[in-house]
Amino acid sequence: MMFKHSKVRQAVLLTLGLTTWAASASEFNTDVLDAKDIQNIDMSQFSVAGYVPPGDYVLTVFVNGQRLGAPRDISVYAKKPTHKPQSQSVCIPINMLHMFGLKSSSEKKVTTSHDGQCLDFSALTGVQTKIELSTLSLNVTIPQMWMEYRDPYWTPPALWEDGLNGAFIDYNANASGTKEKGGIKRVYLSTNGTTGVNIGAWRFRGDYNATYQKQRGGYHPQETHQFDFSRLYAFTSLKDAASILTVGENYFYSDVFEAWQYSGVSLESDDRMLPPKLVGYAPEIIGIANTNATVIVRSQDRVISETAVPPGPFRIQTLDSGIRGVLDVTVREEDGEEKKFSVSTASLPYLTRPGRVVYKLVGGKTRYDGRHMTGKPVIGGEFSYGVSNAWSLYGGTQLNGYYQTIAVGIGRDLSTIGAISLDMTQSFADFSEERLQGRSYRLNYAKSLEDLKTDITFAGYRFADKEYRTLTQFMDQDRTGIIPRSQKENYQIYLNKYFDDFNIALNYQYSTYWRNDSQTQYGLYASTNILIPQLSQYNANLSLSATRTERDNGFEDDSVNLYLTLPLYTGHSITFSELYSRSSGNNRYNHNMGYNGYSGTDNYSLNMGYNHGQEIDNQASFSGFYSKDMSQANVSANASYVPHQYRSIGASINSGITATSKGVAFHRSAHGDTRLMIETPGVSDVPLDSGVIKTNHFGLAVIPNINSYRKSTASINTSKLPDNLETLDSTTDITLTKGAIGYRSLSVMKGEKLFAVLSLDNGKNPPFGASVRNVDNRELGIVGEDGVTWLVGVSAQENLFIYWNNKQQCQLTLPENLTASSNMLLLPCTSKIAISSISHSKDK
To answer: According to the UniProt entry, where is the signal peptide (predicted)?
Structure first.
């Protein structure tokens, strides 16, 4: 095996490039080499184009340029008899056949050799294999005529990995304490996350959340606490069906019906398993925090996100694209004040690839208030069928003994104009005293282009008559006897526009109800870059954020924030903000100036403000916010002081721990989803990707939030690698099923780098081009002129071996102290030793 970073080897290969060779073998003109002992040159390992000595290798396999997962054991055999000098064959294990993406008719033509241990592609014309030891890779070229459809952004199911068996806990924890005027003290603690166990292809999960609040002093001291698993469930990916099977407590997020909770079983298509065409709409949360605040997002009473934010506008864009329905958002300020609003997630028109059927099937009992079940069992489902490139049909049903609903719809791709869908839903609800039946109509329009600088828009309209009931509404009314809040009309518009120097996002939602007041919500976010040469040589950013909620009963809640960020120099800026808010007719104003800093993994801000308005005392405020991205966690801390009002401190941590048979590692939270464990055996503090995540004392690290069913790449950050470390395979990729704990090992050598002069027993030097290897048969250097050799990854008193003519010739031992002298080491290599048991040949 060769070491790809060897400088001497590069010189040798450059020299070889000047030679002339025949088809199979080469006669080197050694006169072009500037070497005194011109006869003492070993070119045996370079004398055949692409020649690889027979033996066993660990190589990364590429097919038509696409990597096939982790490195694999590959054998090279010498052919007998042969008419070509040093002819050889590459043995690809038979269990790799299904990974090549061949047509079924092509697979049938592939035979085996070497007693059924190796694949024989000779029946497929044009198949070629080539080993590159400099990159430790095997490149297989297969003509497209033998291959199934391939998409560079999609990995065939045969290459998906279920990962390791293991267990984990992911968590997000927040804590805050406030002391108010009058001696009132408040403490707020919260945590939420997911714990899980992976066994084979099955994932067992529990989503949990807990809160603790305590108030001391004042007239109403109180203490409350709560802990609950919002759902306990298990699921597995069915690769052949491109679906996910789920058992237990779950949420049925539908593109046709409203979301509902159930305990039972479901089978759902997952479009991430298919070649990408349409990307699911991922909801985002836009708002404003007046102080250091916590933004809590709930879906069906389940906490799906809890994020600590500093004062000013915030934008949360990390929610799962599979979430559907109404999201309840709570902005909890540091003084305990809470602002609440809701966001309806948009659903793109239902479009499906031609000939594909996308479906969701469910059976079970509905749930409410956590783990309480009600009513008779429900069976239901939905589907979408791609009739052609332009048309799709979709629909669904939900049935139990007293409730039935059916929906039918059609989707149309309008090409450059966008896409549109129209559907109708009919419901039948049998109560003890009456039978209600009603209809709901919905129209959706969307335009979504891949270029980020183009429009991404969504618009929707829905009308439901007075007697229409959703499944949840029926269950609640049947259980309580209370007529639910029934929606009549709903309008939604979502717009995002990206220009070169100006961005705008707009959302509008108007809802009317049969027995309640109508409600309107507006949201606007706009930003642009401007140059203010009198203040800074860098472009400043000016942003506007505005929200409004109003109801027919006269309630209005407004918030407008103008935010200017003025860069001082790289990573540092000053901010100015003007905030206007109005709630229940009271106007309030906040003027704020802040200093922000960013340095790699650290973010901090210092703010000074002045507040005034109706029904509040004029007051100054001082606050600070600090966050840090670490290998094992994301942490933040904040503090605030409002003279004569209150003072507050808070902190949060986002972390997790994963345990497998390979070891245990702390890491940033993966939110219960897919993750990748990287091992650098025996070597710690190896930086990965951006360099923030590093392997722990045991050589382990976990990269969170890996894409499911899509190829993910992980690499060692060689620019931040310590001087005493060298990597042989710095990059790897993997495609994992949902919730998997993936594993990859990346070889890293720890040792010194030095120049040495090698000599033999007879006083001569080893041949030019001879290979220096360690006990693991890893090449650490190539002998140069006069025995001068650049060695890497060596350690004190280590035994090394020199090879030429494809066999071990002698052994040398490094001194006890490699750094004692800056001079070139003189290292004798003696042949008076027992030949190592390491073998490089296999002859069958």
So the answer is: 1-25
